[in-house]
Amino acid sequence: MATNPSDWNLRRFNAAMAVLHFLQGALMVYLSSSREWTITAVYQEFDTTTETLSPVMESIGTIELAYLAAGFLFISAIAHALIATVLYDRYVAYLEQGMNPYRWYEYAVSASLMIVLIAMLAGVWNLGTLIALFGLVAVMNLCGLVMERHNALTEETDWSSFIVGSLAGVVPWITIAVTIVGTYSFGEGSPPDFVIAIYVSLFVLFNLFAINMLLQYRGVWKWKDYRFGEVGYIVLSLVAKSLLAWQVYFGALNSPV
Fold first, then answer.
1. pTM of the predicted model, to two decimals?
2. Does residue 129 lie in a domain region?
3. CA-based diameter of the chain, in Å?
């Protein structure tokens, strides 16, 4: 397949992103102190004295925080490596159609892991809730996939998928905010400053992805070229993942438990 210089630049750019994400993930695993976080589940137990059902929280396992932080970096590294190699021709063909399904498949997993990590740092440890948050962010990103596929076939932009994805994507942030506010209101202490910094910075960055898509479909300035928006997604992904990983490292993983 014949490709233009900008496509070759994107190929090199994806290869560089694969290396950067992989190196950061490897450093995260190598440098981090071990820190296991408890995963809980809630079930109903019948109280024979009051003859009522009461919720009971039970520890069902632990997860290594460093592996969770490194996980989304490795997932992104694999995706960029595949795009720069075996998937490159298909990648270019998709770009010509104004879409990149591979991006959304990767985000559906990596961004969902990111929201789970942010939620756990804020104090959301219930397995059912974490699964729901993972699923909502996955749906949000798959709505991005549907947005691109559908609008590749229409002359006028249909924003339905964008709106549905935005609604799905905002729920996890509200859930996490409720937990943070609850800690301030009813807890004996307050969340660490780095957790608040993570919440604010990643919330802003997650919204920049939506703005990038908005500018693409509005055809604003250089976003008229789909490849410019593609570079925007790649840069935002690197910044968001790197910022989250290293804020977690310096806040929770760089000292013995």
1. 0.95
2. yes
3. 77
Q: What is the DSSP letter of 1?
A: -
Q: Number of folded domains in the chain? A: 1
Residue 125, C-beta contacts closer than 8 angstroms, at least 6 positions apart? 37, 38, 39, 40
What six digits make up the tokens of 164?
């549905």
154-200 confidence digits (pLDDT tens): 999 999 999 999 999 999 999 999 999 999 999 888 899 999 999 99
Cα of 28 vs its chain's centroid, Å: 17
What CATH number should be reported for the domain holding residue 213? 1.20.1070.10
In degrees and rounded to multiples of 5, residue 125 shows phi and psi of -120, 0
| Residue-wise pLDDT tens digits, 105-116 | 999 999 999 999
User: What is the Cα–Cα distance from 240 to 91, expressed in whole angstroms?
Assistant: 23
Cβ neighbours around 24 below 10 Å, total: 22
Percentage of residues in the chain having pLDDT higher than 90: 86
